[in-house]
Design brief:
Blueprint: H1 3-28, H2 35-41, H3 46-53, H4 56-79, H5 85-98, H6 103-117, H7 124-142, H8 151-171, H9 175-191
Helix pairs in contact: 1-3, 1-4, 1-6, 3-4, 4-5, 4-6, 4-7, 5-8, 5-9, 6-8, 7-8, 8-9
Length: 200
């Protein structure tokens, strides 16, 4: 087997394991998902799992990263038609919160992710979101849309508010009702960052 085909085989195995784990974690949750059943379902062994991810928690991190990156991209796509820079940023945050109603997102990213992987602030997917928010905020401060505040502080608080609102929705006994409260309040808090003109 050439180095190229070996690398390709490893990538295929990694993709198979992530897909199988994503399905198992969404259906059963991280704790209840059996690694033997998961690996057997794609014709691989525990050895392949350990080789690619280190352990079960490493596999969860890969799945969380994939799902979180997908919902961030979907939120951006949903927000693309929201009008100006500010309304796109606001719509993106609200779309992210709304996805907390989706069972896969709830279980993998918002419930099991923080419970087993710790602070989402250390997740690569959340750091990518933060970097995007930072760019958007810096541009809007330069244009005089957002008040001249610290870019890092604004970006972290906006992202943190959206993520924590999504956590609240995911853990709620009445998620639809909680979503309504969360998005209304997120919008009100975020609007406090805007520069107000004499006409406002």
């Amino acid at each position: 087997m050439t180095a190229r085909s070996r690398q390709q085989s490893m990538e295929e195995n990694r993709s198979k394991l992530i897909a199988a784990a994503r399905k198992a974690f969404a259906l059963k949750g991280f704790s209840a998902a059996s690694m033997d059943d998961l690996t057997a379902s794609v014709g691989l062994t525990r050895g392949a799992l350990y080789h690619n991810f280190g352990d079960k928690k490493g596999l969860l991190a890969a799945v969380v990263s994939q799902v979180d990156a997908e919902i961030a991209l979907r939120a951006k796509q949903i927000a693309a038609s929201a009008g100006d820079d500010w309304n796109r940023l606001l719509a993106e945050g609200i779309a992210y919160i709304e996805m907390a109603l989706e069972p896969e997102v709830q279980r993998i990213v918002l419930l099991d992710g923080p419970a087993f992987l710790g602070d989402p602030g250390h997740w690569p997917s959340q750091n990518l979101c933060l970097a995007e928010t930072r760019k958007a905020v810096a541009a809007m401060i330069a244009k005089g849309i957002i008040k001249p505040l610290d870019v890092e502080a604004v970006s972290r608080l906006l992202n943190g508010a959206a993520f924590n609102a999504a956590l609240w929705v995911a853990a709620s006994d009445a998620p639809e009702d909680t979503l309504s409260k969360a998005t209304e309040t997120f919008r009100a808090l975020a609007n406090g960052l805007l520069v107000r003109t004499a006409q406002d």
